[in-house]
């Protein structure tokens, strides 16, 4: 029975020691970490690139949504302006606006062709 208690206490103390090593930074001086340092830096670089790509894609999506909203607003303005132009350029309104003694012809216009 005392062997089981010793094993449990050793596990607890080793867990405490490993936690203390992480907090102290002693685990960074181990041979395993020092030998794999380039790979660790590479993994950190990949994680940073992944985070950066996420922010970049979110920015692109926001810009796309803003552009679509602006496009819809411009389309609505175009339709409104075109309708106003059509209404203002009706023939009877143009005649009333000019009203400088011009008279609208009642006869159809004729085309004159000259042979050269």
Distance N to C terminus: 127 Å
> What portion of residues is helical?
over 70%
Secondary structure: number of strands: 0
Helix and strand content put the structural class at mainly alpha
Low-pLDDT runs: none
Described by strand count, sense and barrel closure, the largest sheet is: none
From N to C, what is the helix and strand string? HHHH
Average pLDDT, rounded to a whole number, is 83
Total domain count = 1
Overall spatial form? rod-shaped
Number of helices: 4
Beta-strand residue fraction: under 5%
Kindly provide the radius of gyration, computed on alpha-carbon positions and rounded to a whole number of angstroms.
41 Å
List keywords for this structure.
116 residues; mainly alpha; 4 helices; 76% helix
